Amino acid sequence: MERLQNKVVLVTGAARGIGRACAVRAAEEGADMVLLDAPGTLPTVGYELGTGDQLDDTAELCRKHGVAALTLFADVRSSAAVRAAVDQAADRFGRIDVLINNAGIGASAGKAAHEMTEEEWQILLDVNLSGSWRMLQAVVPLMLALQGGSIVNVASTAGLVGYRHFAGYVASKHGLIGLTKSAALDYGPFSVRVNALCPGPVRDDPRMDGGLGGVVANSLGISLDEQDAVDLESVALKTLVNPADIADAAVWLAGDESRKVTGTVIAVDAGFTAK
Amino acid sequence: MTDVSDANGATRRRGIRELLSFPEFQLDPARACHALLRRLPDGMRAASAQAALVEAAGRLGLPPAAARLWDESLPVASGTAQADRYKEREVRRPLLRPDHPLRVTFAEYADGVCDLVLVAHRRVLAPCDLDAIASLLSGPANSSAYAAGAAGMGPGGRSGPPVPLSDSPGPAAPVPAPGSAAPVRPDWGLGDPRCSGTEISVPLTVRTPAEPFVPLLAAATALVLSRYEGGGHPELTVLVEDETGHDTVTWLNPPITRDTRTADLVADCRRALEECQDRPAPHANTHIGLIVTRHRPDDAYVPCLAPAFPLTVEWTVDGADTLRGLLRCDAGAVGPQIAEGFAQHLARAVESLSAGTCEAGDLELLDAAETRAVLAAGRTEAAPAHDAAPIHDHFRRIARARPDAPALSSGDHTLTYRELDARSDAAAAGLRAFGVRTGDLVGVCLERGPDLVVVLLGVLKAGAAYVPMDPEYPADRLAYTVRDAGIRLVVTDSSQFPDQGARRIHPDGLATTPRHDAGSPDARPAGPDDPAYVIYTSGSTGRPKGVVVPHRNVAALLAATTPALGLGPDDVWTLFHSTAFDFSVWEIWGCLLTGGHLIVVPHFTTRTPEDFYDLLLERQVTLLSQTPSAFSALREVDTRRRSQLALRLVVFGGEPVDLRGLDDWLRRHSGCRLINMFGITETTVHATQQPLTRAGIAAGSRSVGRALPGWSLSVRDEAGRVQPFGAVGEIYVSGAGVADGYLNRDDLTAERFVTDPATGLRTYRSGDLGRMHPDGQIDHLGRLDDQVKVRGYRIELGEIRSVLTQDVAVEDAAVVRETDGPLDAAAVRLAAYLVLSKGGSVDAVRARASRILPAHMIPAFFAAVPALPLTLNGKVDAAGLRALVAAQTATAPHSAHTTPDETGTAVALTAFRHVLGEQVGPDDDFFDLGGNSMLAVQVVGALRRVGLAEVTVRQLYSHPTAAEIARWAEQATAHAAG
């Protein structure tokens, strides 16, 4: 199980949740890791972002697999911060083979599109869409020099269909899929692949320390159990998606087994979008 | 003292700096970085190492980024597989940024053990600098080593002033333009571009030679390389870490011939290494690099993170009895078997040079086992127990099995197998009546038609061998053949056939001869070992010689090809080639001995691709044999016409295949296979087969495939020894196809048909250059005769041609060796003849070629020609090229000044001039202007475009001036109107 041996993988939003699951899974496959997060709070975002301790926990879980792990703080809303982080990663490892663009924020606005404030709208796009683009902008030159690489954009089923009262989030994730497809065309001639993953209803996994399910339930004014029940009803497989399920798909897209896959969108949603 | 050390260091670093400035090192920094790994003493902490690093970086004048200690704490124990893999990765991580010359990593494992890993740009920091930094960081326990200054970085001193990595601040990482980073690969490496990025390493162990052994190692490497490259000046770079830990770089290109004394070679290398330090190769990096490193008992040192040269040989000097080396290469440049082989051969060369002096040509690269393995790869076993019956017996059996099937068609006339059998029986009887006996030679000089095949078969049935002569050949050549072969009887319908004392018989005369003599008792039937035909080949030097081929060879050829090509009664073949060209042997007997239907292609149709295309359609031809030159004209017609052909197989022969356009053909004709067959008259038409696939075409493969079943091929050096895989040499052919020899030329036969000491088999030395892949595939690299030496550099014309034809402005090209005097090597020059596409210019093509080719490979002479003239056999005609250009550039012919007075003539003249040049006058004869069949096609095309729509090649041949063809066209038009 060393499918990413000799590769260097950078994961954003790596402190917890899907980001941590992807990082640990990639480390298990032998990749040296660059783990990025931005502790703190964001205006209009009603929950705390991943902490430094959580990021260190992810790094420790990775190192258990005998790989190096470099932890970095960077807010993807800042080009300068992103660039500095990627430079450090390049200094440390001499290469970046895989970028897992996972950092994102989300919760229901609890209101219709026109009722959102300018600030609420802007921050969703700035983190989820522009942040992913800034990471790509900083990492792609390294991949071009290597004449190869894989970028995995963690979008959402909200990149495929609409959700009531989620206009900003849905717009940002649709945008991310557009970025994925265009970038795939831009970098295809250089063997740099760009793909998107669309997680469906994800159940919080205590080991991954994430809590977005709870946050969403909260924003909708229901309990997490009620939320899970609604989600279960909506999916074909009658089981919810775990962060580890996303990580498996991310590792496949990161590695050479998916060498002929680019510009594609893979929904890992237990069949949510099948109907 | 410090100052002196600094100055030395700076001077010394100039060589490594120049070397590592070559683009491949900029694009792939792993090749330009080195690394040192040191196990730290117990109790070392990252914090103290960090403090020491800040101090070291300050002393060395390194930028702040280099002063950062990357602290990695791994929850796995040292010595586990995981920890070892981690270390391995850590010493292979290149530095990317130009302003970041050093990375220091401090790894602490779960059991408290710590490793220090230093990675640095070798351009900036020498090996002694790494030693010094490591010692400083290893703490007080090791500081004495550093304080002693042995590594050149004493307190306050270092190996030299800092050398900037880049002369100008560049981007964080170089971004290659698409296709700009085509890696340099040695031709003999046989690397697989798909495996680029995968490293191959092969350990080497030799007895340590006597001091100084670096010159001996360099000489051994040069010697092996010269064998792989087939002689000349092998080039290599030698990077030596001297006893003080500084780098010296030397570029060597010693001349090596077979009789170079190895002691002289070692002395030459020693002198160069002593006198020419710090001088890398002048223009581009070399294919091979030798890196000599001091042994570090406590550390692991990696002199380059990725192989610095396409083939990198690292030696570590440790003073022990055995010298350990590592051959490293990228699998994209050098394949695994080649690397293994090269390592073995290098070790053998080192041992041999250590043992004492000899001549370079005496070195045995391969041992007996490897020789056997290479020979086995080049051999394909024959199908078990094929029928070795004589051709005519084989034919009779087919004729009895399918008497009413069509055997031969020419025009409206078709013979069934029964009819062909009967008519050839009659011809045989006629020949016997004229006194022909078993083992005799009978000349056959007939146009392609039904009579031709009847007579050939008749000759064989009479027990004789046929000597085909093309009626288009000049009378002198025909006369020469008759005399040289001692022919007493020639079957011909030409009244022009020269009288050389041989009896001339018209084919009609054979059939009507009384049969009283047919059953004479001496009629011992010809057996499989009797000659079937004698074909004269001209070759590039000397007078033509007759190749004697026995019946059994033809049987073996068919046994070898019938199953693989699926030859059978459903096939419709063409007889396109002159019987004087052995491609016709394949066409005639390949068809008639497998029950196929042979369509005779009239002479003018073979010269008119449009008409030939019509014939293929009309006759539903399934199996076509073509020279690549002729096929390219046909392919062009196909591009325009896009008809659905019945072809299932095209067999290429006679010339190196031209891959351009073949992919289009395969896409248009998905049911048609293309097979390239390399062969020689002396080995019975074909010797190898290679299906041309779209993948192979895309990869630009030069492979002619593996030996046919029953044939064996190998590649030999000048002394006839088996060359290793990948190495260039002369192709030797043995097995079922080897001919009996040259008729009446025992000397030449003994020279070319040899008993191979390696196998004991009768073997033909082809005079063709090639190399063998480990799977037995042969790359054909042209004729030995075509090899040109310029200032000692060996040049292959095919390589130059392929550069020219890659130019979009060039539709086709030929590169030939020209000389003013046959023996004057200095007068040898390269000439390039170009068929330009619309708007192309010779100057632009020359300019592009000059950018790509090394100076010694740029042709001295470039000329545009309307088409490449072909010989009768359909191959490019080098002499014709010269004549053509001479005709174009000659002073204006006598009638050039004559003003054309008739409108028709003026129009025709524009067409003539378009193809043949502006100096052409209305009464200049097409043939006097160097006209040939290919040019005729061009002129006819041009005439049609200017409105003389009815003109054909045949009419041009009959009316070879602009004025005459214009008159003919007027009459034809008037006739049509009337």
From TrEMBL, chain A:
Whether Oxidoreductase counts among this entry's keywords is yes
Return one GO MF term: oxidoreductase activity, acting on the CH-OH group of donors, NAD or NADP as acceptor
Arranged from A to Z, the UniProt key words for this protein are: Oxidoreductase
Q: Which SUPFAM superfamilies match?
A: NAD(P)-binding Rossmann-fold domains (SSF51735)
Q: Which InterPro entries match?
A: NAD(P)-bd_dom_sf (IPR036291), Sc_DH/Rdtase_CS (IPR020904), SDR_fam (IPR002347)
Transmembrane intervals:
none
Pfam families, per database record:
adh_short_C2
| PANTHER family reported in the protein's UniProt record | SHORT-CHAIN DEHYDROGENASES/REDUCTASES FAMILY MEMBER
The family line of this record is: Belongs to the short-chain dehydrogenases/reductases (SDR) family.
What name appears for this protein in its UniProt entry?
Oxidoreductase
